[in-house]
Amino acid sequence: MAIHLTKESKVLVQGMTGGEGMKHTRRMLAAGTNVVGGVNPRKAGRTVDFDDRAVPVFGSVADGIRATGADVTVVFVPPAFARSAVVEAADAGIGLAVVITEGIPVHDSVAFTAHARRKGTRVIGPNCPGLITPGQSNAGIIPADITKPGPVGLVSKSGTLTYQLMYELRDIGFSTCVGIGGDPVVGTTHIDCLAAFQDDPDTDLVVLIGEIGGDAEERAAAYIREHVTKPVVAYIAGFTAPEGRTMGHAGAIVSGSSGTAQAKQDALEAAGVRVGGTPTETARHVLAVLEAGR
User: Fold this and answer.
1) Is-contact 100 124, C-beta < 8 A?
2) Shortest CA distance to 169 belongs to which of 273, 279, 275?
3) Full DSSP string of 38-99
4) Contact status, residue 264 vs residue 218, Cβ threshold 8 Å
């Protein structure tokens, strides 16, 4: 019951020895994630103790892959170094790079997502909470104790709303929850996750969380209409956003009627998606659809 991340995933943490990297590595380990190493060229050869687990530090991603067989990296480096960190990981052949860092310049995100795509590395983020397959693995900063394994797949632009929907549906549970990030340029889109959930035999329903700005949700609606046979329930944040004011994520740019919450809702509903007016109403839609399918 998973997309992109399973209990078999072997995870490196770039920036593990920093404050945020240390804190969230400890949380990932507590969630059962197989963290096999950190990366810091200045501290290569050392180990870091996390309760009952000693995690080695490697000088490069390539060294970490050679020593451990790692196939996932979680990036906690400062914005100025994020581009080089992702390029290094992609050049080393990592399969999945989860970029938690926020505040990365857009031109850097354009460069490293394009480079990763050429190298065959999937990027999730930047400026995202990561992804979690409950009961199996957690790569990022998503709280692991607010839900359980289950039949719902979740893809979201918003970290906070990811957590809220996980909590609202905690009695149902999730296959995988993916926070794709809300920046103008992201490595993995709603459509990428919809396609993966469509192919996952243990995902019965998909929850899509979007927000004002851009046209990602409209493009997702067109994809759903043509390619997704599983039920999809959505929530769009931003109906009460004041007109003409910059709000929230860097990607939340509205031009005229394009990118508004209403335009996104209309497109999704035209594709057969139920759209909740609040996170709680969205959760009720999910429960109703699942009950009707039993």
Assistant:
1) no
2) 279
3) EE-TTSTT-EEEETTEEEEEESSHHHHHHHH---EEEE---HHHHHHHHHHHHHHT-SEEEE
4) yes
77: left (phi over 0), alpha (psi -120 to 50) or beta: beta
d(CA 254, CA 227): 27
227 and 198 Cβ atoms separated by less than 8 Å: yes
| Catalytic residue positions, numbered | 249
Confirm or deny that 17 is annotated as ligand binding.
yes
20 annotated to a ligand binding site: yes
Residue 108: per-residue pLDDT: 98
Check whether 101 is labelled as a binding-site residue.
Answer: yes
Q: Which residues contact 186 (CB under 8 A, 6 or more apart)?
A: 109, 113, 123, 124, 125, 126, 128, 180, 251
Q: Binding site annotation covers 176?
A: no
Token pair belonging to 25: 């590595």
Measured in residues, the chain has a length of 294
Quote the pLDDT of residue 1. Answer: 60
CB 244 within 8 A of CB 222: no
3-state class (DSSP) for residue 12: strand
pLDDT means per 10 residues in the chain (294 residues)?
92 96 97 97 96 95 98 97 98 98 97 98 98 98 96 95 96 98 95 98 96 91 98 85 53 56 94 96 97 82
Q: Distance between CA 179 and CA 157 in Å, rounded?
A: 6
Q: Measured over all CA atoms, what is the biggest interatomic distance in the chain, rounded to whole angstroms?
A: 57
